[in-house]
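Standup notes
- DV: blocked on the single-chain target, sequence here:
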Amino acid sequence: MIESLIIWLIIGAVAGWLAGLIVKGYGLGLVGNIVVGIIGAIIAGWLLPIIGFVLVGGILAAIVNAVIGAVILLIIIGFFKK
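- DV (later): unblocked, structure below
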């Protein structure tokens, strides 16, 4: 149980950080990166199978999926900020 939580937090932090690098201007700090990464993973888990793009295979695939979802989330946030 605690191991799963730690893995979620690590994947969220890495995905949020990478998405912040891809979408310039979004330095959210550690907690913000974790939140963006986890929400991004949820978005990607819902959206990517609908469009037929599914990566399977461990932590690396989970990070890639979460980064894709986090980038989508940051782009949407950027539209509403302007």
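- Follow-up: The chain has a mean pLDDT of 85.
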